[in-house]
Structure formats: structure tokens, C-alpha cells
Amino acid sequence: MIAPLPESQTPDMDSVNRLAWRRPDTVQIYQRLQGCTDPGEQAAIDYVAGEARTRPVLDIGVGGGRTTPLLKAISADYVGIDYTEAMVLACRRQHPHTRIEHMDARDLGRFTDQQFALAVFSFNGIDAIDYADRHTVLREVHRVLQDDGRFLFSAHNRHGPGHGEVPRLALDFSWNPLKLGWRTLKLVRSLGPSWRNHRRNRTLGQTHEEWAVQNCAAHDFGIVVMYTSLSEQVRQLQETGFKVEQVLSSETGQPVSNEDGARSACWLHYVARKVA
Ligand SMILES: C[S@@+](CC[C@H](N)C(=O)[O-])C[C@H]1O[C@@H](n2cnc3c(N)ncnc32)[C@H](O)[C@@H]1O
Questions:
Q1: 251 — alpha (psi -120 to 50), left (phi > 0) or beta?
Q2: Most Cβ neighbours (<10 Å): which of 45, 167, 218, 272?
Q3: pLDDT above 50 (res 1)
Q4: 128 lines ligand 1 (CB under 6 A)
């Protein structure tokens, strides 16, 4: 049983998110996931696969191991890491013959400079890290990448439809009475925790034109994440020594080149190459 944060304790983004990731129900969700999350992820993996083939691959924030088979199909020289011990254990159970390590993306000190040809931080995992530490992660990834190495990650879109979510009674209708009953029950059961979490977690919100910190609907409004505009993300990558090669929409899987083109995407997949 994971103890909730005490009401009296002022939450911070990191402790809120760590608590959400290590909950047994969250671990179970990520352990069951399979395949790509969206057409953008599939397109991004296809884009990087050829060049990374048989070369060393680092899978950051591996969770329950959804991406493990997707990336091991590119290269058997693979290591997955996660800072949530329960995720590491679940992932090892799912993929017993695979190297999965307990490690924080902000400190990749156990890896040497230029160790990997490809680093991946999938499913907006980087967004659980605050603005200042995001720079630390970008710098660490840059360090462990080979000179022509690539970083593939996804990030919530500051100007996308997902920004500013609040708990609401929205039922995914079905004509099947069993499905409809089950969905109604699930919705009603999640509304209480969602409102409680939202009331607490929204206090951590910050809104700026190019980025925001917001409580997000995932895990009953249990996490607080960064939303970054396309131009701000490109700026951060360039500042750290990356050249952005592709930005792909989560909705269409198509490349986007500006904020207007990205507006329908809840999140964006970035493929960036290390500039030596
Ligand atoms: C949204 S889940 C995605 C899990 C998996 N990549 C997937 O796509 O199914 C984000 C994962 O990133 C991990 N994570 C978040 N911040 C991290 C950090 N600083 N270092 C390592 N892992 C982190 C969390 O523990 C969680 O397992």
C-alpha cells in the first residue's frame, strides 16, 4: 500500500509524480501496454530504426517494458532504465533476459560518454521532470550519445488540445449495455479521486506562453507534467547541441514544422541528432 502525500505537506512536482508511478495500479497499466502509443510514435521509430540497427540503444523511462520489444527489434544491444523501482521490477519480470537498470535520467553517470547510438524517452516520460531538470536530462543524453547519435522522445504540446484538462463526466458511449455499464462504473469510481488529486495538484500549475506545468488527466489526475511548445522544444534542443531532424504529430503521424501545423497534436515526437 502506497501512503498518499499527507494533506499538510506542500507537494512538489517530483514527489507527486514519483508517488503516481509507483502505485501498483499504475505499474500494472504500463506492464500491460503493447505496441505503439500512436501513429507518430510508429513513424518516429521507423525513421530511426535503419541507422540504429545493431548499435547500442538506451531506453529511458522504460516503465513496464512496452518499448522493449519495439527497440530490441532494432538492436539486441539494448538497456532500459527507470527511476521507479516497481517499474524496473515489473519490466524485468516481463523481459527476463534483458538489461533493465534502476536509474534516474538526470544522472546517467553509470554510462560512459558516447556509449549509445540511439536514446529514447517515450510516452512523454520527460515531461514528468521540471523545467530546470529537463535541461539536465538533455545534457546527460547528449553526453552519452555517440557523435552522430539520435535522441527520440515525445513531449506534451503546449498549444495542443490536451493542455488544461479538468476532471469531467465524459462517458465513452457504447450500444453494448455491458460495456456501457462497465464504463459508467469506472467513470463514477474515478471521479472522486480525480477531483481530490486535481484540487491538490493544480496548485503546482504554472502557465507561460511557451511552456506550462499542469495537472494532467492520466492516473486520475495523479501526475503534474510539462507542456512545451514546438518552438521552445526546438530551442532547448539546439541550445544543448542537438539538431532537430523530425517532429511528428501524435494524431496523424505526419511531420509538422510549425505551431499551427502542430495544434491538433496532444503530443509531439522529436527526433534530434547530436551535433558533435
Ligand atoms: C508515461 S510512463 C511511460 C512508460 C513506458 N516508456 C511506456 O511508454 O509504456 C513514464 C515512465 O518514465 C519514468 N520516469 C519519469 N521520470 C524519470 C526519470 N527522471 N528517470 C527515469 N525514469 C523516469 C516513470 O517512472 C515511468 O515509468
A1: alpha
A2: 272
A3: no
A4: yes
